Predict the 3D structure of the following.
Amino acid sequence: MKKSIVLATAVAAVLASGVAAAELSANAAITSNYIWRGVTQTSDQAAGQGGIDWGHKSGLYVGTWVSNVNFDNSDDGYEMDVYAGFAGEAGKLGYDVGVITYQYPITPEFNFTEVYVSGTASIVTIGLNYTVDAASGNDGGVFDSGDMYLSGSLDFPAGKADLSLYAGTYAFDNDGKPGVGEVDYNHFGASVGKDGFTFAVDKNDQDGGSADNVRFTASYKVDFEL
């Protein structure tokens, strides 16, 4: 219920600004592996992804994005994200603040919602996500309210391609508690992209099986103006 109220308020604020000077766009992508915060979301299988975004010249925006998921080789269906926020510039600093909910219609016990803020100066971007609500199935487990994710990246052109070096650290509120164990982790990676094609390499320091394997990913994305 909290997720619906937060997002409904954010979306209403955007729509109230009017449709003048607004842009509607869409995107579609295929990837050999869906990597999110350094961890595979498809058990190292391919994914089809796509989304629609609405942005206003004021900086207000809303959007939605979907992808198939497969955790631990189980039938988890798909992930649907819905988000709203405000992005702009203050002098030489770019900023982005908003709220995003991660919905899993087939496995709703995984649902959770975050607020986020990020700042960009030149080629450096620093971001923080904070979990404000989690489905009842997450209470006392991983992805509970109070989780924090801190990330940073360096993004710059390299010849005719775009290069990104990035890292993140995930601090779970229930880390170390009985039934949860040590789940905090760090990750880092790099990607190079050109003309919609992106090649990436990712590594994390999770414990257990193949979780911390180095993973190479290839993807292709197309953007559309609607």
Remarks:
- The helical segments are 2-16.
